[in-house]
Amino acid sequence: MAARTDALTARSGLSYRRKGAGTPLVLVHGYLGGAAQWQAEIDRFADRFDVIAPDLPGYAGSAALPPADRIARFGAAVVDLLDELGLGRITLLGHSMGGMIVQDMAATHPDRIARLILYGTGPLGLMPDRFEPLDTSRDRVRCDGVAQTIRRIGATWFREGTAAQGFGIVADLGAQASEAAALAGLDAMSHWDGRGALVRLTMPTLVLWGDGDKSYRWPQVELLWQGLPDAALAVIPGTAHAVHLEKPALFHAVLDDFLTPARP
């Protein structure tokens, strides 16, 4: 197993990981996630990309920062990091709530996004047909605490539940968030609706989804695929919400195909 990429700290206090050189590839995690979940992707793509993975405010290495309670505020924190690093046009990937964040970034800064990857996400933060309503998750955070909540929610992200190989890192990263950050993230999602902006996201986009995803069901994914002007769809069989941890080789192959320019 490759050594973990050391965390760096921006002037804002935001923690991030960075490795490689070339076109910037920015990886944005989702609810109760963290940059460390992308270690395999950082290692896999650093030979030809400048791979950057932030810890969003309130989560993992950025847990000491004030949490964001709106998707746009998460996006602004990532944009501030990109500005500090002097990055212009980037390739941008967002997973789950991170997919909402990158949709918001792409709508706000379209000229900066060369290619977009929307992974395990949708255009509506309330997530119709999610395994449980956001209000239920909010109540359970208050009742059970963050560490127990991420174990319960995180188990739904894998076909094999808590027995899945990647479950440990999900549980560890999520437990680093405070209750305030966990609640703020739920508020951010519940207030966000990106459906009206889809037609403005004209950059080439890959919509990537695990066919057993219990957070973002097919109607959400279909809205993205059909609503975006230039979208390709990849459905990964036998996976749930954490495809990159469940079937990393297949996940990487799909990304590599999308990220490699077609030869004339």
TrEMBL record:
Residues forming the AB hydrolase-1 domain are 24-127
- Protein EC: 3.1.1.24
Sorted keywords for this record are:
Hydrolase
Q: Which Gene3D superfamilies match?
A: alpha/beta hydrolase
**First-level EC class:** hydrolase
Q: Which InterPro entries does the record cross-reference, listed alphabetically?
A: AB_hydrolase_1, AB_hydrolase_fold, Carboxylesterase_BioH
The yes or no answer to whether the keyword Manganese is present is no
Pfam families on file = Abhydrolase_1
Name listed for the protein in its UniProt record:
3-oxoadipate enol-lactonase 2
One Gene Ontology molecular-function label: 3-oxoadipate enol-lactonase activity
